[in-house]
Amino acid sequence: MNLSGFISCYVINSFSPLSFSLLSQIVQAMVDYQLWRHQASLLTFKLGDIPLLAWLLVSLSPLLVMVVNEVVKLHEIRYEIRHEWY
Question: What pTM was computed for the model?
Answer without folding.
Answer: 0.46
